[in-house]
Fold these 3 entries.
Entry 1:
Amino acid sequence: MTHIKSPNSGMDLFFAKMDTQGLKLTYADLRFHTDLSNVMPSDVNLRTRFSRRIELLIPLASAAMDTVTESSMAIALASNGGIGVIHKNMTPEAQAAKVQRVKLHLNGLIPHPTTANASETLAHILSRREAEQLSFHSFPVLKEGKLVGLLTQNDFDFQPDRETLVEEAMTPLANLITAPKGTSIDEAYVITRREKRKILPLVDDDGGIAGLYVFADLQRGKSNESMHNIDSRGHLRVAAAVGVGEGALVRAVLLAEKGCDAFVIDTAHGDSANVHNTIRQLKELYSDIDIVAGNVSRATAAKRLAEAGADAVIVGQGGGSICTTRVVTGIGCPQASAVYDCVKTLRGTDIPVIADGGIVNPGDIVIALGLGAESVILGRLLAGAQEAPGDEVTVAGARMKEYRGMASEAALRENAGSRERYRQTKGSGRRLVAEGVEALIPHTGTRRRRWKNFSEEWRTD
Ligand code: XMP
């Protein structure tokens, strides 16, 4: 094990020395020096970036694997400050629907709020609420297409007679605070706080309803205590894997429609003309969406991805816990050196490195970040969670979850997405070559339950 100091030129000297000896290092080979510090853990700010324009509140992303990231994991990650990368072992339509689920989980502006009619009764609204399975009680009230009031939970609570007309129970327009169409999230947050209003309807030039902001939604995104990683519209951020070439372009159309924040050109070997061309094509078509590309493990490869226009570079080949690429193909680079080399070559650009694979212990995350990666992708560490899509099984009474490599035999056999990532074709006498394995790992429950167990274990009173 080797100790290095970060971040300073000592690190460059150290790795240069390793290079002269032909040594490449893994996370387990390294530890950072301790030193004088006046920083309290609670003062540490973990804000970072996933890609050029996508911020993170914590430096964690979940792997684009079919036993790690679908909507539930992406929602959990983004609700805690990170980002999920929805895998692509499914049709483009199914993947886009999963992105949409994440996007609809939280609201910023509700562009088309459900409205009530002034002449309806409260009973009618309640039955509509039940039939349409609506979970809210706030309805802008319209009369001849114009906003005339707002019906809220209070109005239902204080009016026991359900045959009362909406226009008699509602708060009339004269007593409401409204804002014009086009009011931004930031402006809405200022207005709702200043006026102490939980609902802010937006009104167009003709007096019609043009949207609605809910204070609780705004606060989730705007307050400093919130850990939600949200976009400028107040929706959770989410990324999605695309392949290369025509397939990537087809996926991209549908994913973009649903508001996907980043396309991840997810390949086992990112240093290829196919990947470079796909970056260029996607960049040209989608200037507002970040294009993340990988995987690579050498400086020259990272540089080529950056030159092609990648907004972040994913580093890691064969380092993952379920990977057998290095064993099967003899190719790869120990992850700590790979991360350092790629970070070094991208210094002076604003393109972040994402360290992917081989994070076994929390300390490995610290080492990856210390080496200059701006975030890490986790597979194994998240695959045991309730939110991961892997199947649950019971073995000798213990709850376990399935976690498998995207190039495991089963994944390659079942999914074109896996075969594309590893450039393999099925049929016509060709055999699939697995570069990953299937595993069962302990079920780790949901975040809430883990926290409960933890706090109970450590409670001292
Ligand atoms: P961890 O260590 O977090 O790694 O479980 C997750 C990463 O591993 C990569 N991956 C694979 N690599 N064969 C490989 O060589 C595979 O079958 C395989 N499946 C996933 C991927 O980069 C992921 O994020």
Entry 2:
Amino acid sequence: MKILSIVGARPNFMKIAPFIKAIEKYNNENGGSIQHILVHTGQHYDIRMSEAFFSALGIPDPDINLEIGSGSHAEQLGYTMIAFEKVLINHNPDWVVVVGDVNATLSCSVIAKRLNIKVCHIEAGLRSGDMSMPEEVNRLVTDTLSDLLLTPDILSSKNLINEGVSATKIHFVGNIMIDTLEANRSIAQNLNIEKIIKENLAKGCRNPGIFPVDKGYSLITLHRPSNVDSETTFVPLINFLTSEVAKNLLLIWPIHPRAKKQLIILGLWDQIKNHPSMIILDPIGYHEMLRLNIGAKIIMTDSGGLQEECCVLGTPCLTLRWNTERPITLREHGGASVLVGNNIERIRKEYYHTLTLERSPSRPELWDGHTAERIIQLLVMQDNNSSTKGPTNN
Ligand code: UD1
């Protein structure tokens, strides 16, 4: 069986790492019957957003890099499709495996289906119901086209059933991100927080000298266009962070390129980087982020992956969004997060309440560190049951 899998942006790397390890394990035990080709679309290209994750998580270098880079959504989607079509015609895999909901996930599943190649979607069935999110469109298109829909939780399986997807295509396998978390937890645990700060301080940022991290710290990440691209949303949020959050606790912010660009455009970058109790880091590695998460008193984020990690680690989390495609991470489902949107009054109220909460780890069903092995077993089973193969180019 020949499998071609795709990564494009940072959140894909921690999902593909255990998948590749599970293929290696299967091949070792079964005489190498799965051939795997890894394609990177190149949507994320900075060392800190991409390469660093390959080395930290032991992902082999991509066999093919499409080098798509930045651009409008249309440019990213279109250029990926054009380049990926050639790859598929050249390699003719049995399966294209896509993960998550980034632009690469959509582009590559569309082209695979146009060439009549089977698509397997890892992390299928997540729905925010918010069509203004590019990721929601990516999820809907990918799930509509996929032959094998592998869900991380039962709520996602129910979403697919409610949309009329045939139950035979849906398999609840668990959360592959948690495979990576469990495989790397002890490495992260042993990292020194002060060293992480010193080694990753963003260029030009104030070096705080002494890091009172033992007194506790809050952690923030922001990258969604709905939070950072709009001045009317972003400016009040920054004011709240600088005047209230950072007054209470040291605030650590590993900054996404999109957020940094916006701070510079709005003239807020100097204020942020010189704030006496804010520590601005460049994008940090997987283990470093996990370490900061393990030690944080509270996290504020608009990242989907962090919500899931907070759930398992129990870190009290404010999700800076009005909706989530990952409801299983919310407190009402036993998780550690609460939705606060981008209204400052609401954020403030929940922030002070959340500061009083203890860590409360929870483990949704099948978030057990063995999802990738279940996925490989399923693909092998599907392959044994199937006799159709290859692109037809019509
Ligand atoms: C993308 C994904 C999002 C994911 C996020 C994680 C889509 C639609 N969005 O959003 O789902 O949660 O990645 O990071 O696929 N940039 C750099 N260096 C890089 C990569 C990007 O400077 O290595 C800059 C780009 O020039 C661009 C901005 O960051 O201006 C945003 O990058 P882009 O890939 O368009 O989307 P993300 O916001 O990162």
Entry 3:
Amino acid sequence: MIRILAIDTSCDETAVAITEGRRVLSNVIYSQALIHKKWGGVVPSLAKRAHEEKIDFVIEEAVRKLRLKDSGFSLAKIGFVAVTQGPGLAVALEVGIKKAKELSAKYEKKLIAINHLEGHLYSPFVQNRTGKPEREFRFPYLVLVASGGHTNLVVFNDHLSYQMLGETVDDAAGEALDKAAKLLGLGYPGGPVIERLAKQVNNQDFHRFPRPMLKTNQLDFSFSGLKTSFYYYLKQRYSFSTTFIIEKKTDLYQLTSSFQQAVFETLVKKTERAIRETGIKNLCLVGGVSANRYLRTLFRGLAKKYQGDVLFPSYPYLTGDNAAMIGVVGYYKALQGKFIADPQTLDRQPRLLL
Ligand code: KG4
Ligand code: ZN
């Protein structure tokens, strides 16, 4: 079976994997979260530098890990190189693409360009080295991609065949959580911290912050109005202008829980609308925000209501950005002969669509 070396440097994770069909043989993720933490979000110039500094090490680490199981393995034995072309941060994508071209030339392997969103769509189907989870593809799926960079509702029709139903017109769901956390002085990424704090009050809604676009018939999302209203609420109530340090723990719990609820209710309601419009009951929830246990519970409830099923990527190594999912898409593209004719011409596409 052919092995693929996959690289993703689309945002703030330097990720490399070696895959074989749907199976992941080696998966290494170097997260830059600590570098960006104090800025409350990803700083492009810092991301670029960290990718450049770490990429060789992450590749070597992926090879080393596979060698523990298969001592005869070397990069010369891979079949293809797969790399994320976009969407993402231009300066970050460039680092992975440059490295992929270099390896493709050095080892004379064909190059496969992958859309980062396709990677997330395939993430629930990525298997570990023993082939778990065993789930088969039962197309079509209705997929909600919720991450720091994306909020999309997509119909996953068949292999490499998708239809975009809706997307965010401003902030992504994870980005909204990150911005709320930043306002509260909770650091980056905000999603996991907010999840923890909201749990203290059983994820209840105390403030009823607005749910933008919930009343419209479209399947697009918008979170910037929610963010603004949250900001003004904090300004009025706590009067600080930059970082609000909420000293009263209960206030903090109630604020984070209410904000999270506003974001999640929007995600669930729009997904429900899409189920009704398409008749598709099999759901997938993917992307960094799919790590949230409460959101998973809400999606299980939604699937149950429509007698469907819901799939999630394995937590934690496939919810956020990783290269394993890129390698798996690479496999399906290789089956269809979708290679880059002249690898040296491959360029990053920061705004690539599905
Ligand atoms: O997929 P991802 O790693 O990167 C992008 O492609 O953006 O997603 C990162 C996003 C961040 O906004 C982060 O706050 C959010 O995923 N996130 C979570 C959780 N873990 C990460 N959001 C809610 N609950 C979580 N447990
Ligand atoms: Zn992502």
